[in-house]
Amino acid sequence: MEVLYPEDRFSDGIRGTGTFFHPKSHKDLFYILRRDRFGLPVCIDEENEIHRLNQFPQEMAFQTFLLDEENRVVVIGNPVYNPRVTELYYHTILGKEPVKTPVLYTQVEADRYSADLGSFNWRLPAEANFTIRNRGNRLWVIEDIITSCGCISIEYDKEPLPPGGERIIKVLYKADHPEHFSKSITLYSNAEGAPLQFGITGYAR
User: Fold this and answer.
1) Using an 8 Å Cβ cutoff, are 83 and 169 in contact?
2) Alpha carbons 161 and 141: distance in angstroms, whole number
3) Whole-prediction pTM
4) Is the pLDDT higher at 33 or at 7?
5) How far lies 183's CA from each of 64, 122, 186, 187, in Å?
6) pLDDT exceeds cutoff 60 at 53
7) Average pLDDT over residues 47-64
8) How many degrees, rounded to 5, is the angle at CA 106 between CA 101 and CA 182?
């Protein structure tokens, strides 16, 4: 999860960011941090104590916080994926309204918002497809798709979808071990009512 602190050493008023990790693999995490030249503070929470104390939501979009000088949460939400949250962060940190870029929204409709993958061999990937139709009169643009765990991969056409068209979002789930599971997928786009929430459940035996 990521924690943002206002008012420190940056000219825009943001003190910086600190990130807490409870990784399955320290080796993989350190590789990614070195590869991406991550230059901000990192805390490895080996016992997952922060989550146990706070019971953070599963949805990744709500695991980013803006803290005040007394470390109180004043804004929650990931500004990277939601323009409205970005505006809220901007207003809170700088004390003024941002210059808004108009978003051209459209209407979309999914054939379903949840899928039961049933029972399957945990060593093999399971798949679910969601079909989304553009019912509006503007292009539908997917900005990003966030999953609740790294066990899910997403495949989709990234080209804007014209009015009347449809797009298939392919969700692939690969278990690390036998388990019952319930996972979420959050789709950010210029759809009215965004983000769209999808879920998959099943038993990897």
Assistant:
1) no
2) 7
3) 0.58
4) 33
5) 19, 15, 10, 14
6) yes
7) 66
8) 100
CB atoms within 10 A of CB 88: 18
Does the structure show a pLDDT above 70 at 98? no
For 13, phi then psi, to 5°, come to 95, -5
C-alpha 165/C-alpha 168 separation (Å) is 10
The pLDDT of residue 52 is 67
Helix (H, G, I), strand (E, B), or coil: what is residue 197?
strand
Report which DSSP code applies to 198.
Answer: E
CB 7 within 8 A of CB 15: yes
Q: Which of 17, 37, 52, 196 is nearest to 6 (CA)?
A: 17
Q: Residue 51 phi/psi, 5° resolution? A: -70, -40
Structure tokens at 182: 């319930």
Rg (CA), the chain: 19
Report the distance separating Cα 37 and Cα 20, nearest Å.
Answer: 17
Q: Among 52, 42, 48, which Cα is nearest to 3's?
A: 42
- Which of these, 39, 34, 32, lies nearest to 16 by C-alpha position? 39
| Pairwise pLDDT comparison (44 vs 196), residue with the higher score | 196
